[in-house]
Amino acid sequence: MPNQNSDKLSKPLIIFCLTMMLGMLAPGLDTTIVNVSVDTIAKDLGLQVDIAQLLVTAYVLCMGIAIPFASWLVDKFHARSLFIIIELVFGITCVICALVPNFALIMVCRLIQGFMAGCMSQLTQTSVMRATKPSQRGRMMAILSVPMTVIPVFGPTIGGIIVNWLPWQFIFWVNVPICFVAALLGLKFIPLFTPLDNKRKLDVIGNSLLAPAFALLLIGITALQNSLLTSLIAILLGLALLIIYSIYSINSAKKGKDTVLNLTLLRIPTYTSSVVAVFFCGMLATGVLFILPLFFQNDFGETPFMAGIILASQGFGIMAARLISGILLDKIDARYIASTGVVLATLGTAIFIFEAFWSNYSIFLAVLALIVRGAGQGCMFGTFTTTVYYGLTKKQIADGTTATRMMQQLGGSFGTAILAICLQMMNNNFAITFAISTLTALVVIFCVPFLKYMKNTNTLTKDDVAQEEQEIQEDEEIEGI
Q: Which of 323, 16, 308 is closest to 143 using CA atoms?
């Protein structure tokens, strides 16, 4: 059994986590800064805006398709090799996008970048969780998830600065040094871990069902804003493929065969409640992030740049809450932290109902609300993206990562589509839209009672002991860098 006093994060372990986090920076930043540059790219290349928007849509779709496939890659190959290859490919495609003013070639590169981004998110989260003991995961997730939660807030501001004062090609150039520095650091600081299962076969049937199901659901949800018929067809086809995959996955589990996503884990209450909560957290985070800039600009006449500056205050709340909640998750009951997050997110969002309904706008109050709201998001995301791994073996960690990444992306797309439709139907009535967002935050509270309190689980099974022995071996590999 491991030394119970060895829960302190070692320096090599922290450096390893920071290196993996840096690897996430370019793909995460690229998602947001390209989005605010679509109009500029369209004008420069002589394209319709809806055609240029495909640069964002294709990226997001390929990122979603890659997530289940990447689960197999992470188990079969060395994390260091995958990390370096992904960073180099992403960096090289950014160079091509910046140098070649050809939409077709840029589109191909965006498809590759989206796939690489999906693989990197799966690789980063799974590798870090496997390299740490359960008693360290709250702190490690706090470090790891900072870019994932902060980039959506700061990214549009950075993109706006680039578009306003520099050629649009710099939205790609900005990622090039990040990618190559990350690849070099990965070569030095990422241990050459033994692959968890280098004999694992690719689940061709599972990927052929789950990847298009996920893509169709994303397409259907996004199309809600424009075409109800197209949306329904895509969603129904996606759900049909998801049902077929569920039957296939459950039958495979009965036969002892591995699938791309193990659905039998849904029998674990903590796992299921965490996955569901991540969906609603994605709705709350991404959906409101879509309407807040419109609220500041349309109702109160702020410039896009000023709206971005105000919105950035939410990032500080997220960062502070993620770091504090990460430390507390390794010490106290996760249910307290999640409940606190729900209260703060609800309060922070509800303040905007007051501002919108009474048209009583105050920058000070808006910034305060965003900081409080950001703190709530940080507590909720930090809790549920950590508790999803409670009770999972090392082999099952990839399933936890796959489930949370897919649900977060679906929740974000669904939240954006629903709030956009509500805003359109209610004639830009932001008060009602913020009220819907507040109710979304409150729904998360129903997931909290099902979370497991890890500090009370002192009885170790044989599998638990074997898992902890594996964790010690991983720690020794890290210490031996």
A: 323
| Neighbouring C-beta atoms of residue 458, cutoff 10 Å | 6
Between CA 263 and CA 246 the distance in angstroms is 7
Q: Is 193 left (phi over 0), alpha (psi -120 to 50) or beta?
A: beta
Selection from 133, 132, 93, 129 nearest residue 113 by Cα: 93
Task: Name the token pair of 170.
Answer: 């710099």
Residue 157: which of 319, 26, 306 has the closest Cα? 306
The rounded distance, in Å, linking the Cα atoms of 242 and 263 is 11
Burial of 244 (0-12, 13-18, 19+ CB in 10 A): middle
* Closest listed residue to residue 320, CA positions, set 149, 151, 445, 437: 149
Q: Which amino acid is at 17?
A: C
Angle, in degrees to the nearest 10, between helices 54-76 and 204-223: 150
Residue 362, classed as helix, strand or coil, is: coil
Which H, E and C letters describe 264-320, residue by residue? HHHHCHHHHHHHHHHHHHHHHHHHHHHHHHHHHHHHCCCCHHHHHHHHHHHHHHHHH
Cα separation, 390 vs 447, whole angstroms: 15
**Closest Cα to residue 164, out of 309, 17, 318?**
309
Angle, CA 20 vertex, CA 57 and CA 378 arms, to 5°:
70
Cα–Cα nearest to 40, from 167, 155, 179: 167
CA distance 116 to 118: 5
**Residue-level pLDDT, tens digit, the chain, 481 residues:** 334 345 777 888 888 888 988 888 888 888 778 877 777 888 888 877 667 777 877 888 888 888 888 878 887 888 889 999 999 999 999 999 999 878 889 999 999 999 999 899 888 888 888 888 877 887 887 777 777 766 776 777 777 778 778 888 888 999 999 999 999 999 988 887 777 666 778 788 888 888 888 888 888 887 776 777 888 999 999 999 999 999 998 898 888 787 888 888 888 888 999 999 998 888 888 777 777 877 887 777 777 677 777 888 888 888 888 888 888 888 888 889 999 999 999 998 888 888 777 766 678 888 899 999 999 988 988 889 888 888 788 778 888 888 888 888 888 878 877 887 787 777 777 888 888 888 888 888 888 887 765 543 333 344 544 554 555 455 454 444 4
Q: Which tokens go with 227?
A: 């075409």
Q: Which residues contact 191 (CB under 8 A, 6 or more apart)?
A: 16, 79, 80, 477, 478, 480, 481
**Rounded to an integer, what distance in angstroms lies between the CA atom of residue 112 and that of residue 243?**
29
